[in-house]
Automatic annotation (TrEMBL):
It comes from Cognatiluteimonas weifangensis. Pfam families: Acetyltransf_1. InterPro entries: Acyl_CoA_acyltransferase (IPR016181), GNAT_dom (IPR000182). This is GNAT family N-acetyltransferase. Residues 9-196 form the N-acetyltransferase domain. Keywords: Transferase. GO terms for molecular function: acyltransferase activity, transferring groups other than amino-acyl groups. It comes from the Bacteria.
Amino acid sequence: MRASGQPAIDTRPLRRDDWPLIAALFGDNGACGGCWCMWWRVPMGGKTWEAAKGAPNRAAFRALVEAGEASGVLAFADDQPVGWCAVGPRADFPRIERSKALQRDWDAGTWSLNCLYVPARWRGRGVATALVAAAVAFARRQGARELEAYPQAVAAGERLAGAFAWTGVPALFLAQGFRPTGGSGRGRSLYLLPLRP
């Protein structure tokens, strides 16, 4: 317990046996709209994505987790899961290439931090900050050369609805040393954090 009376937030990388924790955290809705953290993992959107929402995405993500092929970081408070961050090699997330704003030259050392999920009752308590810090440390330990993030732009004084903040907001990444690579300042932009030369 912290001095504020709030439980301490602990983090650790995802493990193969964590599916029950993911299922409990994401709930029946698969975190948001039946996504089950598959949005960036499938190469196509449109009708293909609509057909995958819900049970198909749940089964696909479960298979990835249990095979050790999904990477990310979980956050806990009092041993209960309170947040998720997807982070892994950019090659694991082919849909990123379909966004012109996120296209750039990259290689096997490029990692992607592309999804944050914190249930509404845990927002505003430092969970996302802890997840991003843990994701940076995890990517560095795994040998990533650089880490990308794709925050959603937010106007001054505006509060973004949770359904639109799943890639994070700029301030979250700026505080961890990420820097914007350009872009219009509207929608999602690519932010980059060098991890090693």
